[in-house]
Amino acid sequence: MTLRDRIFDGLADKFAASLYGATRGELRLALLDHLLPRTLPLEGQPVLDIGGGLGQMSGWLARRGHAVTLAEPSREMLDRARGSLADFNVEFLPLPLQALPEQAPGPWPLIVCHAVLEWLADPKEAISVIDELLAPDGHLSLMIFNRDALRFSNIVKGNLGKALDDRLAGTGKRQRLTPISPLTHDQISGWLTERGLVIEHVAGIRVFHDYLRERDPDEATLTRLFELERRYCDVDPHWRLGRYLLYSIHKPDTSGSSE
Questions:
Q1: Among 3, 250, 26, residue whose Cα is nearest residue 137
Q2: Where are the extended beta strands (E) located within 125-207?
Q3: Are strands 134-145 and 198-205 parallel, antiparallel or unpaired?
Q4: What domains are defined for the chain?
Q5: Fewer CB under 10 Å: which end of the chain, C or N?
Q6: Average pLDDT over all residues of the chain
Q7: What is the pTM of this model?
């Protein structure tokens, strides 16, 4: 079967409800709010938000003084983002990642690409495209869906055969939201190294939450859980089982010559 990039036209409601309408979405945003100011230089520079979806991160950045360009291939998702971000300094581009070197080449001092690569047929090539867009001495915030966490989750659920056969990826059909290209840390680390990009920090997003037996914990439990997530999100080995892996990446400026 030939994979195609997953575009979310017709799925905006399901996407919003599944990813942001529950505690897991609240936790994801809370952890980003905890981590990004500590791991990225956020100094009001222009930002390219690749695959920005419903605009959560674009809004987060715009509220902190950044001029944001949100690129999203789904017209439906982009319309939702445009409506919710009407009062912010955000430009909207109805474009996939692959079109950005021609349409929005930058170079960009800061790029955000969260939960995008796992929906692409060729995520390795996407790293090359992002590198092309990123300015020398620029920074990238990259978040990917963790294949190892997906395997562990299937084992917890009793899907042992699926885990043994490594049948973890989604097909991109119907309304299922299992990524077509879940990725491992070793893949990401290898691809970034090939491009000369440096990982400065890595953290797991939702290290514990998705393995709870209780699917609807009370407020007291959630408070303790959120504290555990903040405390251990970037502590080895816990971060390695985050449902998502969040990378802060630097592109060294190699333009200068030594004398």
A1: 250
A2: 134-145, 198-205
A3: unpaired
A4: 12-250 (3.40.50.150)
A5: C
A6: 91
A7: 0.93
